[in-house]
Amino acid sequence: MSSHQDLTTFRALSFDCYGTLIDWESGLAADLSPLIALLPPTHAWRANPLLAVQRFNDHSEHLWLTQPKLAYDANLRESFRLLAQEQGVELKGDDLDSVGDGPGRWPAFADTVDGLRRLGRYYKLIILSNVNEANIARAVAGPLAGARFDAVYTAEAIGSYKPSHDNFRYLFAGVKREFGVDQEKGELLHVARSLTADHVPAKELGLRSVWIARGGDKPEGYGTGGDYEKLKAEGKLGFEWMFQTIGEFADEVERQFAEKERQQAE
């Protein structure tokens, strides 16, 4: 999985948003803090809020499967309610409402906007996200302001959540209709952090992909993206490139296009 395979043949990049472009785990941990503050001082979540995020994500993913048409803001509120109930904590209504608006205000990673600007010189840029329309609109206008997106496809519009193949088929149909980009001809490259939600179905569907690991290649950094070593051992991953950040990915893309231009000029 060399980072030096050819990246110049693609016409479009599709991106997972939360965890890849937006710092989903840190943003969610901050929104879970009212619950965590009510737990005993010895509770493991007090020392490591990421554990709360991971358990929250278990509830959220269960709802993806059992209530695929539930909008993501409602999914988040219900996941938070279930998490609090599980811990025997009663939350205020404001805290529940706040987490539902989180995806519209959680911060982008420091490398995201500049990296997207540079990638946008070479490709069409598309978001494929497990989010609702209102939150993604706020994110694009807020934390992601300055980056250009040519299309945004959401779970709310599709009616299901990744890793459902329906979401990716919607993506394939959309980019072909809107931009003439043919996934079957290898013109689309998927860029994502989550292994379970993105890279596993990408392999199943023959979609070429880039892993933005953000530390997820080490056990202490797995977070909510999935167990890398386990999924790799099971043969479920097929990504061809790995970078830690969008910025590093953009660096390599720029390097390759510059080299190609130099060769063509000779």
From TrEMBL:
Example GO molecular function: hydrolase activity
Keywords associated with the record: Hydrolase
Domain of life of the source: Eukaryota
A matching Pfam family: Hydrolase
InterPro entries associated with the record: HAD-like_sf, HAD_sf, S-2-haloacid_dehalogenase
Name of the protein: HAD-like domain-containing protein
